[in-house]
Design brief:
CATH architecture of the largest domain: 3-Layer(aba) Sandwich
Number of helices: 34
Helix content: 40-55%
Number of domains: 5
Shape: globular
CATH topology of the largest domain: Rossmann fold
CATH class of the largest domain: Alpha Beta
Strand content: 5-15%
Number of strands: 17
Length: 728
């Protein structure tokens, strides 16, 4: 044990890290460690956790053992310590990535007293030869970074972390410092209990990161939204999280072809590639990293300006930690999340087959993230409430979408009273979902067996839907009328304030909640001119189409169909490259008919000083659709459409729809072999001549004009033949 004066500590801080002053509680934490006391630090990302064990390690006798879950993070931290020291021997890591020669070098440096910090993965610490080696050297203390990994209630539970206490005891009886950025009261207690350190001095900082802006958008046009968002920020540094490795690869490729310097990062990549991508991001040779949620990044980069969740994470802890990687230097940090309930359903499927207790915990964590996404309450207040911290939303300073664009409020005294009474009548033994079903009078087997359907409040809220009552429950929780009993996986209990409200009902303003599945609830930013067609331009484009159709002697719809013209009035493409990304326009069609259209639009944009949403026009990845390639190849081989359909588990109608899309975009396809078996030459000519004179490609009009002599499928196939020959 080494004690140190405050003056001495500040001298050491200046000597090793170049800072004149400690940040927040750092000084008290370090003093506690140096006094040989167990220490528990809960400090948000960017608060300076690492220094709390690095500085005492550098000024103590012996080697501090730091348990860290991520090889990438170890490498970062070792590099950082070596950069402030005269010798590389001051810090090492011990994990599966090292060769035997490298392991020998690490152990020699420790034995010679050169190494002050040894970073180890828990798996490496459990190896018998490592335990035997470490028992023979002087250990200053144990540090556990990312300590939430110990708790089954944490967002990143690792079973090997549960064994750390017994391993520590086998090595040396020295103090422990456990550190985490995310711990609910339940997780905190679980960590202390497991490490036998209920006596620890607890240092808990506020979870509030006041420089972060939180926003949730509905998951619509997500790729376009992401590209526009990044380009608006002049290609600042950012991270995008996706649910699957496949999606990571897709998004990284999509960003690259749209001029954004992005790299993929996930567990399926070769470790050398991963390390290279990480270094490129740190060295600013890449602007954006696209990563899986499941794979912790361990990137200690202070100037990440945005974190985007393409898919919602599986818990609020994960969300808090991942968004916490933005703005660690106190500068701008934009946290944008795209939400669709379908993502939650996917995550629920992953829980199937797991032990019941694990499923219950997983469901509870998912319920919390859904509540966060759908709430209209200040997002900062909601997050802090989850971590057991009270917060007045006025302190948000409009740094979340719900505070910046507040939702409508309405008097909710009666609804809150009804909900709280229902909790009371059900003897505080049920979760939110059951109480909502109870209020709308859902006659479940459970409600009958417990005779809950005979209680006064049963069905009293049937004039509203369950989703409404869910919103009431969330707002009662955040307001402090209710709390969740974690041990019973989310049972709702009344607080003193809740009981007081039942006894003395008073005005309570409820917020209208978000419904991200609805079109009307899309509060995401839309650039000027991108949300409605330019009617004036549309009229000009229709005239141009008519003119070109006469020149080429083809019907207008062969040139461009109306949905394509409409999209042009929204996107304002001024090059053939941009035109090829318009709905229903491929490269072939753009090259064949596009030049006069882009010239006209370019002139129109200039004359009318239109602010073009160029970044909204997204280049798509070259179409790699297995189905489309399969269809084109097999049509070339003259395979019957029925066989193509059955080989892919599709109907013939679905295959025809795919072919229509392929041909509309400008690819020529010859399906004569199939049509010849269906229609004789005269019938084909009859339908073909109709389309030659038609003003529109409408099937209904064609069917009527042709007096119902042909089936819809026959007309569709002839329309494909006509468009392919005349338009492509």
């Amino acid at each position: 044990m080494i004690t140190s004066s405050k003056v001495g500590l500040k001298d050491s801080l200046k000597k090793y890290f170049g800072f004149n002053e400690f940040k927040g509680e750092q000084e008290r934490i370090i003093q506690n460690v140096l006094e040989g006391k167990n220490t528990f630090v809960i400090m948000p990302t960017g608060g300076g956790k690492s220094l709390c064990y690095q500085l005492p390690a550098l000024i103590s006798e012996g080697t501090a053992i730091v348990v860290s879950p991520l090889i990438a993070l170890m490498k970062n931290q070792v590099d950082a310590i070596r950069n402030i020291s005269e010798s590389d021997s001051v810090a090492h890591f011990l994990n599966s990535s090292l060769t035997k020669t490298e392991i020998k070098k690490v152990k020699d440096d420790i034995s010679e007293g050169k190494t002050k910090l040894l970073y180890v993965a828990p798996e490496s610490l459990t190896k018998k030869e490592n335990i035997e080696f470490l028992t023979g050297v002087e250990i200053s203390f144990f540090a556990i970074d990312e300590a939430h990994c110990i708790s089954e209630w944490g967002h990143d539970f690792r079973p090997e972390y549960r064994r750390l206490r017994e391993i520590f005891e086998a090595i040396s009886n020295v103090p422990i410092i456990a550190l985490t950025a995310t711990a609910t009261p339940k997780v905190q207690h679980d960590i202390q209990k497991n490490l036998h350190m209920l006596d620890a001095t607890i240092f808990q900082m506020s979870f509030n990161r006041d420089n972060l802006y939180y926003e949730v958008r509905p998951k619509k046009d997500v790729e376009k939204n992401i590209i526009r968002f990044i380009k608006e920020r002049d290609l600042k540094s950012g991270i995008i999280y996706c649910l699957s490795r496949k999606k990571v690869e897709e998004i990284a490729e999509l960003l690259q072809i749209n001029g954004i310097n992005a790299l993929a990062y996930h567990a399926g990549l070769d470790s050398n590639v991963r390390a290279k991508h990480q270094d490129m991001f740190l060295m600013e040779e890449a602007d954006v990293i696209v990563a899986t949620i499941a794979f912790g990044m361990g990137i200690d980069k202070p100037d990440v300006r945005f974190v985007i969740h393409h898919d919602i994470p599986k818990s609020l802890e994960s969300y808090y930690q991942e968004t916490g990687r933005a703005g660690r230097d106190g500068g701008e940090g934009y946290c944008l999340t795209f939400y669709s309930y379908k993502d939650i359903e996917k995550l629920e499927k992953f829980l199937h087959g797991k032990p019941i207790a694990e499923q219950e915990i997983g469901k509870q964590l998912l319920h919390e993230i859904v509540s966060y996404a759908e709430t209209s309450v200040c997002r900062r207040k909601y997050i802090l409430h989850y971590f057991g911290e009270r917060f007045n939303e006025e302190g948000c300073n409009a740094m979340c979408d719900n505070c910046r664009y507040p939702r409508d409020k309405f008097e909710g005294k009666n609804e809150v009273l009804l909900f709280l009474k229902a909790v009371q009548e059900l003897k505080e033994s049920q979760k939110a979902k059951y109480i909502c079903d109870f209020l709308i009078g859902n006659d479940s087997q459970e409600s009958k067996s417990y005779k809950h359907d005979t209680l006064p409040s049963f069905g009293e809220g049937k004039d509203q839907e369950a989703v409404f009552w869910n919103a009431v429950s969330r707002q009662c929780l955040v307001h402090g009328f209710l709390f969740k009993e974690i041990e019973s996986y989310g049972t709702l209990k009344l607080t003193e304030d809740g009981l007081d409200f039942i006894a003395n009902p008073r005005s309570f303003m409820l917020l209208k909640e978000h419904n991200y599945e609805s079109d009307e609830d899309n509060t995401s930013y839309q650039p000027k001119g991108s949300n409605a067609a330019d009617e004036r331009l549309l009229k000009i484009l229709l005239d141009l189409r008519k003119q070109i159709s006469k020149q080429k002697n083809v019907p207008p719809f062969v040139v461009f169909q109306e949905p394509s013209l409409l999209d042009m009035t929204i996107q304002y493409p001024i090059s053939l490259d941009e035109l090829s990304n318009i709905v229903g326009v491929g490269t072939g069609k753009a090259n064949r008919y596009g030049k006069p259209f882009v010239e006209l639009i370019s002139k129109y944009v200039e004359e009318n000083e239109i602010e073009r949403p160029q970044d909204y026009v997204v280049k798509s990845v070259i179409n790699k659709s297995v189905l489309k390639v399969h269809i084109i190849q097999n049509v070339d081989r003259k395979m019957p459409l029925e066989d193509i359909a059955s080989s892919k588990g599709k109907t013939v109608e679905e295959i025809i729809s795919e072919i229509e899309g392929i041909v509309s975009s400008g690819t020529k396809m010859n399906i004569d072999y199939y049509i010849d078996d269906m229609l004789d030459e005269d019938d084909q000519e009859d339908i073909y001549d109709y389309f030659r004179e038609a003003e529109t490609d409408s099937l209904d009009e064609a069917y009527e004009e042709l007096n119902g002599d042909y089936e819809e499928e026959q007309i569709r196939l002839m329309r494909i033949k006509f468009l392919s020959e005349m338009g492509n």
